[in-house]
Amino acid sequence: MTAAPRVRMYSTAVCPFCVRAEQLLRARGVSEIEKLRVDLDPALRLEMMEKTARRTVPQIYIGDTYVGGCDDLIALDHAGKLVALLSGTAA
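Above: the chain sequence. Below: its structure as tokens.
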């Protein structure tokens, strides 16, 4: 059985899109989300911008796969691909 990939999310404390993304991930069975708080650590914000070329949060990684922001996560779920990615069985 494949281990579930690590979920990492660049976020801030008061971001409604971060909350929405977290709620969706939890609804799909994710129990642990590594939150990288860019509002507390400017170096993390720079790291996020270098990796993603985006300035907004959330920015989400599932394993080594860059998902994008909240809208991207929701689109992935609506396409029926999120559960497979979270289970480590995505092609």
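The first helix runs from residue 16 to 27.
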